[in-house]
Amino acid sequence: MKKKIFIILSYLILFINSNTFSSEKNENLKIGLLAPLSGEYSELGYSLLYSLQLALNEINDDNVYIIPRDAGFNNKEKLNNAIQEIKSEGANVIIGPISHEDFIEAKKYNDITFISPSNVSPEFINNIISVGISLESQLITLNNFLKKQKKNKTVIMFPINQYTNFVEKKLRKLNYENLRTFKYNPNPEILTGEIEKLTNYSQRKKNLELRKKMFEDKEDEQSVRQLEKLEQLYTLGEVNFDSVIIIDFGNNLKSVLTSLVYTDVDQKKVLFTTVNQWFDESIFYENSIQNLYYPSINYDEFKKYNDNYFKKFSKYPNEISILTYDALGLIYYAWKKNGEIRSVNDFIFKNKIKGKIGTFSFADKKVVQELNIYKTEKNKFTKF
Questions:
Q1: Which residue of 80, 212, 222, 264 has the lowest C-beta tally within 10 Å?
Q2: Residue range(s) defining the domain that contains residue 111
Q3: Interval 198-235: pLDDT, tens
């Protein structure tokens, strides 16, 4: 087997210079940035912009220029004006848009390559490459993890909401239709009843009561000991799955986990997994959960990035800004390798790429991240 070659992007950080956008020669690299620099999402926009300033001493290349423009959020007029202004400055590669809904507008500019932090689609879409942590990459990582743990009766759980069709489409694309799926109502008052049906809770509860009655009227030592053991249980009998993948976040995820524990799903026998949580420490306070596993970017790099950002700007960044940071390094690498950037084809690399978020590839016009598995354990995130 050939030894894998990794291209390190961590040193490819760029210095922002907004003073001389119109005087550079062809040997200069001009990169546009589409961000909501005003309005409700301006904090996100400036977090993306500030992340680029962490370039300072890494390559210190005076031939690289960033052209930031306010594109608003889901605002077609602002977006088009921003793209046209960036294009007029001579840039033909742009970081953004951040929203997948804006791809319709971006596709109109087929002479510009867009590198978006969106995670909706890992495939190259016309002139757009999405470098966000896609659901496909997460599910592939989880599936491989569960196979290694010899789990073969997995239930994929996800809520009934505006994203249901999206999740189902991803499962079909990955050929995961043969796996058991369970769609639930996110309303906590309804959710517990649905989880009870999934876990056959009522029958397992009856099984325990019936078994206890077998020993209640007996006085021999063995029967007494058996009854004492049964008194320590809440149900009797196994659930018909050995692992779950919960595609949910925040309080909804916590409600599902609480319901699974309430219905007495044995965490020693059933593996609880979920999708990327961006190291949300609030999950630590869900005391009923012993271990929760999920795929994610490199935690050490993520923490280092956050610390550097805080030292520079006295605030912590939005999570997706680390994707923008890597996008800059990716563009710079493609530019140095090819001498110019003409289209998305300049981003099809044979070698795997290693950035802040982890290792990913661009083969067959598809972005695939190789993520790590982490677990929450004793109020810590531990790489598994």
A1: 222
A2: 6-132+299-368
A3: 999 999 999 988 888 888 888 888 888 888 888 887 89
CA atoms within 13 A on the CB side of 2: 6
Distances (CA, A) of 120 to 70, 230, 364: 22, 49, 17
Collapse the DSSP code of 143 into the 3-class scheme (helix H, G, I; strand E, B; otherwise coil) and give the result: helix
- Determine, yes or no, domain membership for 1: no
Q: What region does 7 belong to: left with phi over 0, alpha with psi -120 to 50, or beta?
A: beta
Helix, strand, coil abundance in the chain, percent, nearest 5 = 40, 20, 40
Q: Are residues 269 and 178 in the same domain?
A: yes
Cα–Cα distances (Å) from 285 to 72, 267, 302, in that order, read 36, 17, 22
Beta bridge partners of 93: 31, 113
Rounded-to-integer distance, Cα 190 and Cα 159, Å: 12
Residue 37 in domain: yes
Q: Rounded to two decimals, what is the model's pTM?
A: 0.86
Same domain assignment for residues 123 and 46: yes
CA distances to 182, 203, 223 from 237, rounded to whole Å, are 21, 9, 19
